[in-house]
Each structure stands twice: as structure tokens, then as C-alpha cells.
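Researcher: Sequence recovery benchmark, item below. Answer with residues only.
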């Protein structure tokens, strides 16, 4: 089987499984996760929260950069704007970095049941840190 075929089969299986998982969320005490499956579930929940916070922070930062561009345009002209474009460029690069960094970390347990925990834990940690950076950017423009 080619990698493409395997990827397509994996995506199809995930598409089937996701609705079932969404309806039947396991009853897991994430403060006392015992099995690898529970730990994987809990770290995925951590990532979901971090990703939601990251998206909110990005929206706040984008709003602040739009204001910067508007102010710069008014005082210096259209040719001087670029804050929004710079933020978009940085965020795309950061997402590529985060995903590559965390996928690389996952190779410590490649193919094992711990791999998803390593990858998602890394993504949660880096996403939380990036949200703080974006909040700092947004707040810097408020002062």
C-alpha cells in the first residue's frame, strides 16, 4: 500500500470514529488518568483548550494589527502598511514550526500508544505559549 492510500484509509476511519467519540466522551478523571488511553484523551482535551485560546488570541492580535495598519495608512500612507500581512506570515510559519517540532518529538515513541500523547502535549504547550505572545502583541497596541 502506498502512503497516500494509507493516509486516505486513516482519514476515512477517523471521519467515521469522530462522531461516535463526540457523542460518547469517556468518563475520565484527567487529574488521575491511569491508562495510556486516558492520558491520550486528557492531553487531547488540553490541546483543544490551548488551541481555542490560541484562536482567540490570534483574533485579538489581528484586530490590533488592523488598527495599526489603519493608523499607519492615515499618517504615512498606504505604502507603509503591513502589520496584518506580517502577523499572517508569522502565524503560518509558527504553525508549521509547531507541527514539525511536535511531530519530531513524537518520534521518541514512534508507532506506540504514547506517541499521540507526546505530540498533543507538545502542541498544547507551544500553543499556550504562542497565545501569550499574541496577547502581548495585542495589548502592546492598546497602550
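Model:
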Amino acid at each position: 500500500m502506498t502512503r497516500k492510500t494509507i493516509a486516505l484509509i486513516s482519514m476515512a476511519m477517523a471521519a467515521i470514529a469522530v462522531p461516535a467519540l463526540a457523542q460518547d466522551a469517556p468518563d475520565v478523571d484527567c487529574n488521575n488518568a491511569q491508562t495510556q488511553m486516558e492520558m491520550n484523551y486528557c492531553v487531547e482535551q488540553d490541546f483543544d483548550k490551548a488551541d481555542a485560546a490560541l484562536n482567540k488570541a490570534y483574533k485579538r492580535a489581528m484586530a490590533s494589527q488592523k488598527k495599526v495598519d489603519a493608523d499607519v495608512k492615515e499618517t504615512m500612507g498606504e505604502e507603509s502598511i503591513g502589520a496584518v500581512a506580517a502577523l499572517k506570515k508569522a502565524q503560518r510559519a509558527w504553525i508549521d514550526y509547531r507541527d514539525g517540532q511536535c511531530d519530531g518529538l513524537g518520534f521518541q515513541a514512534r508507532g506506540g500508544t504514547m506517541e499521540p500523547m507526546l505530540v498533543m502535549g507538545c502542541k498544547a504547550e507551544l500553543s499556550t505559549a504562542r497565545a501569550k505572545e499574541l496577547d502581548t502583541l495585542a495589548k502592546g497596541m492598546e497602550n
